[in-house]
Amino acid sequence: MKYNKHIFTIILLGLSLTMYAYDAVGHRVIADIAYKNLDCKTRHKVDKVLGKHGIIYASTWADEIKSDKKYDYCYQWHFQNLKDSMTVEDLNYLLNNPTNEGEHLFYAINQMITRLKKDKKDTEALKFLVHFVGDLHQPMHLGRLEDLGGNKVKTMWFGKEINIHSLWDTYLIDNKKYTYSEFSDYLSDKFAGKRKQFAKCSINESVIASYTLKNRIYAYDMSDTSNYRYVYRFSDSLDEMLYRGGMQLAKILNDIY
After folding, report:
1. Which residue in 209, 241, 181, 178 sits closest to 29, CA to CA?
2. In three state form, how does the secondary structure of 69-132 look?
3. Is the pLDDT reported for residue 16 higher than 50?
4. pLDDT above 70 covers what percent of the chain?
5. Nearest partner of 152 among 140, 170, 137, judged by Cα
6. 185 or 10: whose pLDDT is higher?
7. Domain spans of the chain?
8. What pLDDT does 14 receive?
9. CATH of 5-256, one of 3.40.50.920, 3.40.50.970, 3.40.50.10490, 1.10.575.10
10. Which of 64, 87, 173, 174 has the highest count of CB atoms within 10 angstroms of its CB?
11. Looking at the whole model, is its pTM more than 0.70?
């Protein structure tokens, strides 16, 4: 099917205003946790590419460039639309064959890892990878195609109409009232007893965890307007995905460098 290129571009630009995975705080939390768990050798090499603590400061770069038309080609790399009924085998197959449903998030992560293995000084690939691993752990970026990962699913948040994509991008994180460094410290303390467990997790396990949470989010009765109940129900899940994302990013970078 052929699309009118001009109309398609307008649609993409419009969606780019809403299709952000975790806001700046969320991405920085994941990058900060990763930075704390890099091997000394890896940290030194990553700092040489992006500057000291550079993976934290550059973690939002891939969202910022959405306003630059020369990067329109990578818009679809930020998400992977998945059906609700996929099995573990289905997910693993798609991870191993990432272009089977087009060039999306799984493809992008695989490509950036491949690029960095060939050239460890590939600044762009490193910045993309840091961001996309964060995207992977925002469960609505594995959401349904028909509602644009929850962007069309409306809900009320303390008297304000929002969508569940932005709820997971921003509002749940803002509800914590932490800076990114405070949040990172909190999560490092909270999951200290499971650090070794998360450090060993494969990217496949991260995908399964994020996908499983995505299905729980969709299954929640959004007619229940008790926001405090929602926070209670999902706060620990949010914490785990942020921490898991940081540990996964650290594992990938340690393997590369």
Report:
1. 181
2. HHHHHHHHHHCCCCCCCCCHHHHHHHHHCCCECECCHHHHHHHHHHHHHHCCCCHHHHHHHHHH
3. no
4. 92
5. 140
6. 185
7. 5-256
8. 41
9. 1.10.575.10
10. 173
11. yes
